[in-house]
D-alanine-D-alanine ligase (Candidatus Woesebacteria bacterium GW2011_GWD1_41_12), 248 residues
Amino acid sequence: MPTAKSEDEAQVKKTPSKEKIKLNIDKDALKKFRLVVVAYSSVQREHFATRSAYEAEVEVEERAIEVSEEIRKLGIPVRTLPGDQYFYTNLLVDKPDLVVNLVDTLKGRDQLQPSVPAALELANIPYTGAGMEGLIIGNNRNLTKRLLMAYDVHTPPFQFVRRVGTSIDEDLGLPLIVKLNEGGGSVGINNHAVKETYRATKLRVNNLITTYHIPVIVEKFVDGPEITVVVFDDGGKRHVFMGQKVFR
């Protein structure tokens, strides 16, 4: 469910697992890896419209290092690689057996994220995470919601807005939440995102489009818990991990 708080203010409520998770690990296959690359976003302040958007991404290199350390514990050679203009060239030079793809943005744009799996498929290098189609859909809220509607999956009513000055559809009802259309994160979603009047909503829309230069969606705000679900396929079984975000 959409919320009025940012990701930075969220904490995940941990529920004790009733059973120990057992992953299907092929230890013989692990020994065959010559090199695994952990790819991460190359974050430069000038690529982001606001400091908050920059700060939401700036810790990605630390996460990549943490992941690489865990891989190294398995006895697998590993290196980290930023998703910058040299990314594809470095892939061709290193020729890794696998890329753990942690790239969220390229030049500060979520919309360019599908370029990474595209490069990996072009180089015929296996990788983790979603492919091009999944990232294209997941980084476009307008497209995601229209697909949900096409398959009769309930989603709050919304309006897709491209231009400053667009009138807000009053049939949506109040309160409303305004979100950037591009991206899967919470940039632009904060204590000011939920509006109780159409005038305030329009001002918020104008501000976001002017600041980020991308369309927004205006959505009927639905109060309720926000659940993050991760599905991990280990080749033998699909594991589902769920966590509720608690906003304070």
In short: The two ends are 16 Å apart (CA to CA). Strands lie at 10-13, 36-41, 78-83, 98-102, 158-161, 176-180, 194-195, 216-220, 226-233, 238-247.
